[in-house]
TrEMBL record:
It comes from the Eukaryota. Pfam families: PB1-like. Residues 114-124 have a biased composition (Basic and acidic residues). Residues 3-102 form the PB1-like domain. This is PB1-like domain-containing protein. Residues 114-136 are annotated as: Disordered. It comes from Tanacetum coccineum.
Length: 136
């Protein structure tokens, strides 16, 4: 399966709540083979074509469909390991994968919220949520 990757880069995440990705540029990579898609491939594009320093820490995220940036960000490496997650995401967005490039690690608040969501997952198994719809 091929897809189009939209790299949202040179921007930054604002603070929660109501987190946004602002001051961004968007680069399009098309076509991309889903079977060979990797974080290494994205990092090569960032360094060879978009001018990123290969030694600079760079974090890659996708946002789960129908979720906010506050609760729906997933590291790209995790999403690639869950092949069904990428398929669900691309099908929702007409074979487009929106990828967010951050040169600054997410604040501890977001990491804490994601951890809380994982902890509450067992408590909320009967309740609908973004994580429940996509990954269970």
């Amino acid at each position: 399966m091929t897809l189009k990757v939209l790299l949202h880069h040179y921007g930054r995440f604002t603070s929660p709540p109501g987190r946004e990705f602002v001051s961004e540029m968007v680069a399009t990579v098309d076509p991309v083979e889903l079977d060979t898609f990797s974080t290494d491939q994205v990092k090569l594009i960032l360094t060879n074509y978009l001018g990123y320093d290969e030694n600079s820490p760079t974090f890659l995220y996708i946002k789960k469909p129908n979720c906010s940036f506050d609760s729906g960000l997933v590291p790209l490496a995790d999403a690639i390991q869950e092949h069904d997650m990428i398929l669900t995401y691309t099908q929702t967005h007409q074979n487009r994968l929106h990828l967010y490039v951050s040169r600054v690690e997410l604040s501890p608040l977001v990491v804490t919220e994601q951890h809380k969501d994982d902890t509450k997952k067992t408590e909320n198994q009967g309740k609908p949520s973004c994580a429940k719809k996509l990954f269970d």
